[in-house]
Amino acid sequence: MTFLRCLLISLLFSANAFAGDSLYFGIRHGFEGTRAMGMGNAFTAVANDNTAIFYNPAGLSQLKEGESNYFIKLDGDPDFQDFGDQISDAGDQADDVQAISDVIQSNYGKHYSLRAPSLGFIWARPNWGISFIPLDLSIDMGLHRTVGPSVNLVAIQDSTLAFTYNWKLKNNKEKYGKMSVGVTSKLIYRMNVDEVVDVASIALNDEVFDENDAKEGMTLDFDVGFLWEGPWKRFNPHGAVVIRNVLDYGYFSNLNVIGDGTGDPEKLHRVIDLGSSMEFGKWWIWTTRVAFDIRDILHPNWNIQKGFHLGAEFMWDVASWFRGGWRAGINQGYWTAGFTGELGIFKLDLASYAEEVGIQDSKIENRRYMMTMSLDF
User: Fold this and answer.
1) Distances (CA, A) of 171 to 34, 134, 177, 180, 355
2) d(CA 321, CA 318)
3) pLDDT (tens digit, 9 = 90+) per residue, 324-358?
4) CA 246 to chain centre
5) Rounded alpha-carbon distances, angstroms, from residue 70 to 65, 98, 374, 376
């Protein structure tokens, strides 16, 4: 039995593998930038690069020139593979059902995640942008007691086409600052499984594929963002409000990629993000800023800890072809750190962060590591 079987549970949706809907208490976002995650995902009021398309469409007004970015991103926790190896080893034993049950029981209360690979491109201009992300697969596994030892599994594959446009509002009294408004429209095709996998099914997961266990659908929604830029250049304060997934009506089409009997996947969820940031100006090669967000208000799994984001970054700029930065922050109550190095058209972004995937009275930290390699033009 190999680790591939764990992935097959997620990707093939076996016929008799599931006992019921799983319990997932985290908050899943769409696109997440590695730069933003390094600074605690407090990016709503920063949003000054091409990822503004997904964080705050009003932020594109801050771009000085066009940016094209082609990326591949890997994101996961290092224990994901270790858990798969434990299951594989247990499956090779004579009494594999009991061995797998022992592995799951020894990991009760833990959570394992993988979001990789993500592949796509973002093309942004000072007042509009477009992005296509055909591959964005995430797998979350929680080990809990239900009827017996089992794995709570959530797997989501999104293909996203997004278009953004923004406007700078005319203001005859710029001593009060500048205001921008932006809208990102998103066409998303989602394939999803959200189930509880029991021990016997993990040991004998060679059933015939049954599309009735899968969910898929296409939806069209949009985000609207507002960004205020203060008139004081020395501290350069920003404030922002973003409403995501404004329509949140569900899915209007099913292309039956998996099969004819699929149902509707998890909705996107309408949420509100509030953000603020302050930039302290440039000193020599350094630019320093801090940011604070309250995100995902209205999400069914929201609480004040899961909505809290705080971050800082220290950007250095030696030349247009050689620059980067260091970051630190707090994401949902847990520390984050990040690094960017850009040499010519090649850029490497690294981040370590954690998310809260438990409930208010039973907290579970899920630490992850993210790496994005991209070509910038």
Assistant:
1) 34, 39, 8, 11, 40
2) 8
3) 999 999 999 999 999 999 999 999 999 999 999 98
4) 18
5) 17, 46, 5, 7
